[in-house]
Amino acid sequence: MAVTPRIATRAVIIEDNRLLLVNAWGGGVSDLWCAPGGGVNVGTSLPENLIREVHEETGLQIEVGRPCLVNEFHDPNSTFHQIDVYFRCRIVAGGLDHDWRDPEGIVTERRFFKRAELNAIRLKPDSLPDVAFAPEGALSYDPLEPLIR
Predict the structure, then answer these.
(1) Which residue would you say has higher pLDDT here, 46 or 146?
(2) DSSP structure string for 67-90
(3) C-alpha span between 112 and 25 (Å, rounded)
(4) How far apart are CA 68 and CA 141, in angstroms?
(5) Which domains are seen in the chain, by residue range?
(6) Where residue 109 falls among pLDDT bands split at 50, 70, 90?
(7) Torsion sign, CA atoms 121, 109, 72, 1
(8) Which of 32, 38, 85, 90 is paired with 52 by a 20 to 30 Å CA distance?
(9) Residue 124 region, left (φ>0) first, then alpha (ψ -120 to 50), else beta?
(10) CA gap 100, 134 in Å, rounded
(11) Torsion-angle region of 27 (φ positive above 0: left; ψ -120 to 50: alpha; else: beta)
(12) If you average pLDDT over residues 57-86, what whole number do you get?
């Protein structure tokens, strides 16, 4: 059986000069933060997948803009390899309602962070703050890195 990389989409959402991140480790297993998003379903476009994933994880409705980052990571001890395509996005409806719950129970927290606050948290990929707060239009590539928890 051939093993192929998993494809995922992620949203770079800046609002009031703050970046939206989620903790996607059910039960608070890890303190690692990432951009909202997730795996691509066959037969739907990357933006369609991202709209669905962001709504599931945050309750927000978004408009998907241009790609800004491609990031790869893998588990050196298994065949897991994921390629994340990050898109600049804009919130068009909704807010971070305290009563919201991820239907899959994966995302336990979601929060906006100021640029200065990002230095005090664990997040992946390492290049995300620079990409998120860079002028719009640039496309970056973050090479293969080991999976961390």
Answers:
(1) 46
(2) EEEEEEEE-TTSS-EEEEEEEEEE
(3) 17
(4) 9
(5) 6-146 (3.90.79.10)
(6) confident
(7) positive
(8) 32
(9) beta
(10) 30
(11) left
(12) 93
